[in-house]
Fold:
Amino acid sequence: MKKKVEFKGTREGIILQLDSECDFEELLDGLKDKIEQGKSFFSGATVIGIEGRTLNRREKEEAEKVFSTSGIQVARLDFIERLGHNSSSEKVKTVRETIEKSEHRSDSAVKESVEKAVEAPSSGGSSEGVAQRSDDQAKIVFGTMRSGRSIIYPGHVIVVGDVNPGAEIVAEGHIVVMGTLRGVAHAGSAGDSTATITAFRLNPTQLRISTLITRPPEGGQAPELPEIARIRDGNIMIEPYL
Amino acid sequence: MGECIVITSGKGGVGKTTTTANIGAGLSLRGKKVAVIDADIGLRNLDVVLGLENRIVYDLVDVVSGNCKTRQALIKDKRFENLYLLPAAQTKDKDAVSQAQMKVLCEELKQEFDYVLVDCPAGIEQGFKNAIAGADRAVVVTTPEVSAVRDADRIIGLLEAAELRNPKLIVNRVRHDMVKRGDMMNIEDITDILAIEIIGVVPDDEKIIISTNRGEPAVATQSLSGQAFRNISARIDGEEVAFINFDQNNGIFDKLIKLFNFSK
Structure:
């Protein structure tokens, strides 16, 4: 029989997997049982979200009450959409797998990285990110992204610094570069065609928004002003950002 | 207690080995005691550039695997007082040495020498990791080519990831006539991308090729490149030296103009 409530451990904390077919009272009972079974094991851990169904405010409060006596912290009980479960982010998955493979990571690490994004040994040449997607989540990267560095993130990405040739950003949301963008940027990677790419100097190797790919014209010199790229009439257009 | 500096580039053929030999010789000319280590196991050539290939008995792999004492493997340079070479093994490969062994070796040499320079192999694999393992500082060599700058960028990222902060940059083989015509990346373009401190610009100079083939570092010769390497050595040694102005032309006409300008 399928369990009503499962605890899924991730690097960031516990994600509750709820059976979407049960009603809330059943889930609450399942939750109580689950906590009772693994009280000592889960003590000190933090719940960072749920999967399978959403909870309304009243349900959240009740669930929090259950947790309050258990020693398990509750950070959020919001619905989490994870990479790999979402078919529209299939492409990101592939990109990520390719990158991970090119970095000679072991197969298991590749598999894991599909499940949850990998924060690999600092900046060397690796993908970074976390697994949750919430609409207004953004990752801020400080410093220059050098060749070989890759950031794949299921939200917006802001780089405070330059993005050099050979570096790559793949974001499901918008991309903002507070510096010169010389590498590859892919905004709206899960199919969001309203995503934009903005940079103080937009001089990329390649721009991708949603499923469109474009490259700068041969021999063209990028103007010395902030620009924004977005999809207009089925094409990626670059306009001065004012 | 000395300092261990790794000289690296990512891309091959940009002049790491020549730079290592010349900075080593340059520092020894300044009265420092210097050891240069060739970490390019299997493809050694620092010995050739220094003209010491026929004096090798023991090598780096012999030292780390305990076949000989470090002192036995160090070869004293024939021209430069205080310059010693620890050659690479030619018949082994990069896996013959581990990062931990390199660390121990660099620590040991730092006790005795003012500067320990490590000539890093091209690439970012095991050989690179070994070479940077014991280093306190890093010098990145590049040439004004897009590919070399791209690789240097990657290397700087890897160095920072390995906690080697603030690497310094040397731009090698610059042709100022081409830069002037706009046919070659200028120094500003390069520092714009790499965003690290530059400690030297070495002009493309056929004297370098001649001296390298003869096994005599150019740093001791009266050439523009020799001067550039002397300046770099001084900067590494903590002295502030002005950059050479390569715009100088040696024609009489130019000299006259210069005089004229000067007198104004």
About this structure: Chain B touches chain A through 14 residues (CB under 8 Å). Chain B is about 45% helix and 15% strand. Chain B has a mean pLDDT of 91.
